[in-house]
Amino acid sequence: MLRAKICRIFFVLLGSLELSFIAIKSYAIYQILKTLKPPWNIDGVTHSSSSFHLQPSPDPKSIFNLLEALSRLEEMPKTLLSTPSLFLIFLSIIISSLPTFSSTPSLGLDSFLSDQYRRDPLAGNDSFTFLPTSLKKSLSLSTPSSNHKSLISHLLSFQISIPVYVKLVGHFSAAAPSLLQFFASAALSSAQFQVIGSNPHHLVVSHLLHLEAAYSPLGSEISAAIRSHVDSSTVPFHRSVLFPVPHSVVDRIVRDDFEKESSNSAPGFYIYLLNLDQQSKRYAYSYDAKDSSLAFSKCLGTIWTGKERYMWIDLAAGPVDYGPALSGEGLLPRGEFHPLASLHKSPRPEKALLADLASLVLSAYQTLLVPSLRISLFLESMLLIQFIRIHGSDNQGLAGLDWAFIEQTLRESDLSFKEQTLLFKSYSVKYSECPICSFSIAKSMNSYTSRFLFENYTLIVSEYLDSKHLSKLLRGSLAEIHRAAGITDDVYGKVLPVFVFDLDYDKIIFLDRFHQAVAFRDMVIVVRSRNPQTVSDYSCNGRHVITNARNLNRAIVGSVLQSMWGVTPTHLTWSQEHNSTMVDYTWSVGQTPFGPFSELSSLSFVQKDAAKRNVLLISLNYSITSAIDLLESMEAHGGYRKLLKNSRYVEFVQRWNLLKYKLEKIISAMSQLDYDKAIYFLRSSDLDLYALYTVIYQATQELEASLVCFKDPSFPWVSAFVAAGILFGFFYVYAKRDKLFRSKRKQF
Questions:
Q1: Is 328 left (phi over 0), alpha (psi -120 to 50) or beta?
Q2: What is the pLDDT confidence band of residue 2, given thresholds at 50, 70 and 90?
Q3: Cα torsion for 467, 567, 248, 601, to the nearest 10°?
Q4: What is the Cα 401 distance to its own chain's centre?
Q5: Is residue 646 within 8 Å of residue 452, measured between CB atoms?
Q6: SS3 163
Q7: What's the pLDDT tens digit per position in 238-250?
Q8: What distances in angstroms separate CA 372 from CA 165, 191, 208, 642, 701, one per listed residue?
Q9: Is a pLDDT exceeding 70 seen at residue 380?
Q10: Alpha-carbon distance 482 to 498, whole Å?
Q11: What is the overall mean pLDDT for the chain?
Q12: Dist CA 351 CA 616 (whole Å)
């Protein structure tokens, strides 16, 4: 409108060259000022004018063209400014002021939401209110199906693609990558995400493995690095079947290759399968800088999971074995049946080897890349972890219980989203100041018997704490414990108390006989006594695992991960086929805070990704089930087409299509491992879902009950005449039976 008015003014003033010159300059300056509007700040969120008027952002190229045209106009002598030249100059300024095609106001929905994500990353504002009219019209074009079952089936069909890149390193044929992909795709299809601590145990969202295998030329470099270390190192003092090689020897090479590969490809998980040359000694990898000894043997393994999204498996190392020493599930055997021992079997065709490797990759995929969720949890703006140490004597040391180390480990692991606040507080209380604490310990104490082979089978009585009974007592006395420890309930959000019981016992006291710490949905319970170490019921490479009973840092980190972020230990998975939790210690060595075979407290990408993905999956599952409940509620009222009228019908269609689009964007962002963008679309979709509930609620409030009286149906004359005719025919035949059936009667 304004541009047309200026054009008309220009042609009116065209007779006067001086006035025309002034008009051109004024129009050009107006265009520059219009593109440089300052941003506005409303409700604490900064918006530019484009977020309200839906204009494109300033195009530097257009501004540059305007300035260049003005400079040329100033340089030209006024005597040369004739009417045709002024017209051409004015036309060039109008063309240069037009926005380019990439920044036209008719932005696509994807571009609009990307712009909203940049302006409002916390999704505090409803993006629907800022939609331009053209986009709202486009959302109205696609009418949802009137059959609510088809809409529900669409909501239940969301699948998150999990990109996995398998790198074959070492002695593999050219056909190995394609064969590995074939075996993996044939063995596993899409499956739903599982939750251990909820019922039902599955979510409505599924995951789909997208595997790509390729050859990597790192074999010679890694083999040379291992050979150099083995040849230059001295044999350890104590005898061991396996020679310890620091994992950093291989990890340094693999990490450099991962950084190079990941920078040139889409985000994904990288699994390196190493089929290396045989070394002069059998070897396995150590994960701790401390050397093994006769007293403390380190558990050597053949795998490593990095802090970034990569892991490697050395098939030539080992064979190793670890798991329960006496009885139990989850043992990794030394024999030929486990895929980790594929290269240690008798020679066989490459197809058989690749079949084992495909099984190994799928096991890593199910346990590490798409692990089961420990518990259901939701997005909270504030997370508070309360360390509550309950102790007896004053001179009892804090060695093995470092709050600062635990806090640093959890903070540096980047487990929370940007909008979440993670707080830590520590408290200390004596048993003499907390009678309910002493009562809870005494009430939860149990004993069990076991036999050990000394001179004969000696019967030994040991004590342990029943964690379930203890947690029940603590829940019922939280107020008294808070009062004794000086805890104030002034923080809103999710609060996780970590109760550490420092007992003045000389004997070993564990929770449920085996655990230093047990994680519950609403608390973590940790216990230790004065006894510094004990022999556990687990073995690694033929030797019993020694448990440092005084060191609680690693146990607390693992338990907090389970209770606060729902991260499942690496040896637990939920099996839908068995309808129970399965135990497998294959992946419980290396960089993991879970299990008895590792001493590292640092977290790998497995725990980091699971912490954020779990929150997204549970929240997305809740949004989808809420949308399904909405559809079923509308169907009970006759469907949305009968329930909604006029403007509400249009708003429902627009909102529904926008909600469906945002749900698809959540799936896309999670498939690209962009969890920050996924949480934005999730929060934004919640606003649309709330608006849909509001629309339906308002529509149901306007429903009026009515009683419709039906007229009595008319007499069925046709049916009556037909029945009468049939009855008349029957009586007629019966009356004339002698005449009609005379020929059938026997004559005498």
A1: left
A2: very low
A3: -40
A4: 31
A5: no
A6: strand
A7: 556 789 999 999 9
A8: 21, 12, 15, 42, 42
A9: yes
A10: 12
A11: 82
A12: 39
Q: What six digits make up the tokens of 417? A: 């989203």
Q: Are 378 and 618 spatial neighbours (Cβ–Cβ below 8 Å)? A: yes
Enumerate residues 6+ apart whose C-beta is below 8 A from 683. 122, 123, 379
Instruction: Give the pLDDT band (50/70/90) at residue 715.
Output: confident
What's the token pair of residue 724? 């009468």
Please count the other Cβ atoms lying within 10 Å of the Cβ belonging to residue 260. 10
Q: Is 491 exposed, middle or buried (0-12, 13-18, 19+ CB in 10 A)?
A: middle
Q: Are 461 and 447 in contact (CB under 8 A)?
A: yes
Token pair for 183:
């075996």
Helix (H) or strand (E) holding 454: none
Cα angle 477, 481, 487 (rounded to 5 degrees) comes to 130
174, 665 contact by CB (below 8 A): no
CB 62 within 8 Å of CB 100: yes
The amino acid sitting at 209 is: L
Give the pLDDT confidence score for residue 76 in this predicted structure: 52
Closest CA to 545 of 585, 494, 491: 585
Residues in the chain: 748
Tokens for 310, please give them.
Answer: 């990569």
Number of neighbouring beta carbons within 10 Å of residue 55:
19
- Alpha-carbon distance 666 to 497, whole Å? 32
Integer Cα distance of 512 and 294 in angstroms: 29
Find residue 284's DSSP bridge partners.
244
Q: Which two tokens stand for residue 270?
A: 């990288």
How many helices and strands in the chain, by DSSP H and E? Answer: 23, 23
Beta bridge partners of 548: 533
In what helix (H) or strand (E) does residue 521 lie, and over which residues does it extend?
A: none
Quote the tokens at residue 572.
């637990």
Mean pLDDT of 55-62: 43
- Res. 280: pLDDT tops 70: yes
State the Cα–Cα distance between residues 103 and 119, nearest whole angstrom.
17
DSSP output for 646-693: HHHHHHHHHHHHHHHHHHHHHHHHHHTT-HHHHHHHHHHHHHHHHHHH
Q: Which two tokens mark 725?
A: 């005719």
Q: What is the per-residue pLDDT for 55?
A: 37
